[in-house]
Amino acid sequence: MSEPAAAGPSDLAERLAFVAGSLNRRLRPPADALTHVSVSALASIERLGQVRPGDLARIEGIAAPGTTRLIGDLEGRGLVARAADPDDGRSQLIRLTEAGVAAVAAARRDRAAGVTALLAEVGPEDRAILQRAVGVLEAVLLAATPSPARTP
Questions:
Q1: SS3 content of the chain, % helix, strand, coil (to 5)
Q2: Are 55 and 148 in contact (CB under 8 A)?
Q3: Is the pTM here over 0.90, yes or no?
Q4: In this predicted structure, which of 6-15, 16-25, 37-46 has the lowest mean pLDDT?
Q5: What are phi and psi for residue 28, nearest 5 degrees?
Q6: Could you report the per-residue pLDDT of 55-112, keeping only the tens digit for each?
Q7: Which residues partner with 8 through β-bridges?
Q8: pLDDT at 5
Q9: What percent of the chain has pLDDT over 70?
Q10: DSSP SS3 for 91
Q11: Helix (H, G, I), strand (E, B) or coil at 13
């Protein structure tokens, strides 16, 4: 890979946004598979163990009505289950079912296989650069991810 000229912050942001969008389009799941939004929500629930619908909406950056539909769809597929929130009788806690855990794992494997294919021709030096960049991006994303209001 050739090294582009040093870019300013807005150039870097534009290029990174373009690359992230292109990568997502290349890794688009088949029509009958879970959407990126569904997989992201499942991964968030997996990371937290259980979550209130409002917290999931905030973490995923989607409106409450969209979260209600999303949870209903995931529940209908048998991927999540609801339970009463022992700390707030007006709310529910959402957790993954065994099928939900398997769905997240399968989605990760499928996406990783797609990325592996794209990286097949990347040399060791560029692979090391990507490894470091991914670490930086993971830390930035984790720091920018909202936490639940309360831990259930």
A1: 65, 10, 25
A2: yes
A3: no
A4: 6-15
A5: -55, 130
A6: 999 999 999 999 999 999 999 999 999 999 888 888 899 999 999 999 999 999 998 9
A7: none
A8: 59
A9: 92
A10: strand
A11: helix
CA dist., res. 74 & res. 88, Å (int)? 23
| Rg, Å, the chain Cα set | 18
As a whole number of angstroms, the distance between CA 134 and CA 130 comes to: 6
Tokens of 31: 């029509």
Residue 44 CB neighbour total at 10 angstroms: 19
Which one has a higher pLDDT value, 6 or 91? 91
Helix (H, G, I), strand (E, B) or coil at 93: strand
- Asked if 59 and 51 touch (Cβ cutoff 8 Å), the reply is yes
| Measured distance CA(27)–CA(130) in Å, rounded | 18
Q: Token digits for 106?
A: 């399968």
Contact 148, 48 (CB under 8 A): yes
